[in-house]
Amino acid sequence: MTYTVTAHLRGELAKAGHTQLRVAALLGLSVRAVSDRFTGKTEWRWGEIVRLCEAYPSLLDILPTAAVLDAAMAAAA
Question: How much is the pLDDT for 66?
């Protein structure tokens, strides 16, 4: 995932009050691994994004827009 998608994920989950600890438990990852994903050090896997969307359906409202923005920025680079 690129920056825009990660930023939207982080923002939406934080706005809903979901901590990295809760996200880590949901995904079966360490808090450090989740932090690495939120900071861009490690890329998100699609399976992780799918699990997050299943648990937090509101993400489905923002992720398509973020993905389109990322694609447009990549094409312009």
Answer: 54
pLDDT, tens digit, 9 for 90 and up, residues 54-69: 888 877 776 656 555 5
- What does the buried/exposed string (b/e) look like for 59-75 if buried means 16 or more CB atoms within 10 Å of the residue's CB? beeebeebbebbeeeee
CATH value of 3-76 in 1.20.1050.10, 2.60.40.10, 2.60.40.2470, 1.10.260.40: 1.10.260.40
Q: What type of residue sits at position 16? A: A
Q: Are 42 and 33 in contact (CB under 8 A)?
A: yes
Confidence (pTM):
0.72
